[in-house]
Amino acid sequence: MAELEISKPRGRIPTFRVIKIIIGVLFLVFVSWRLFTVLVVEDIYTPATWVRFGISGLVIGGVYSVIAVGYTLVYGILFMINFAHGEVMMLGAFAGYFVFEAFNTIVVDPASELNFLNAYPWLAVLLAFIVGMSVSMVIGVLLEKIAYRPLRGAPRLIPLISAIGASIFLQNAAQLIFGPKRRIYINPDILSRSAGWTLNIGGEEVIVTYTGVFTFVLSILLMIGLWMLVQRTRMGRAMRAVAENKETAALMGINVDGIISRTFAISGALAGAAGVMWGIQNGIIYHYVGFIPGLKAFTAAVLGGIGNIPGAMVGGLFLGVVESVGPAALGIDFQLKDVIAFSILVLVLIFRPSGILGEVLSEEKV
To answer: What structural domains and CATH numbers belong to the chain?
Structure first.
């Protein structure tokens, strides 16, 4: 007797999909209503104000992108989220701060009281970045060797818990070493946070600050440099081979542990550069300064496609602009910008978990 074939009824939409559609429609209706109210009915902000929001978003988005690339590098090879990455950035910011402080106390011309920081500003900035990136690079490598390498064969949840523990440890260590007070970055005069070029938008002046242009341009150059390293160099090919299949890469003579350590070193160096840029642009650092930017950079990495380097770049810039423009466009308090950022994370996880450009994994999902 022939077996009866039992199949699911066709044409029935799964319950979760219906819920997703309802949430999406309600979200689009709410956003459309708020945008219409703020932009058309109330018309509170001038074109110059919107330009200011956009410029601010691009600058902070560039920093998010640099941090997010560090997340996505590690994820692409080890399939883990390094939640201590924000604290690695924070330590790089402190290293750059102390370099500027030291150069600010060195007087090169007693007659005019000219210090080293302003006598040789670009050399001081270069050295601050070198020290900040070097410190973060060392911290990144030590994290990999101490907190992650012994757990490499463990279930995925275990390294994640270790990363959270490392994050808390670095925060408290920085508080004990540097103190809880907030410190002010002393920039060279040529990177004064109040100076810049002036644009005339609709009869209003918009200042494009030197620090903003410097931060944005440097972040783009760093991301292009990383992309070239991964795509065009021998080490980059080895990194991609390890990300594809560790066992096969080892059989081909690649030092897998060495490549993973170098990946953490590159990730740490990028975090250190982001930390110094954060200090130069925003001016205030303390032991907790890397936590929120680290979470937002993780959001940017997920938004662009975790494990995807161009996706992390796009996600960071997009998140920075949305975070800057969003509160004004929706007519809500600017203190709620973090709510917008993390709401985007929730929506991306619901509607497109693979991100804008798609995720790139080191192994197939199970």
So the answer is: 63-311 (1.10.3470)
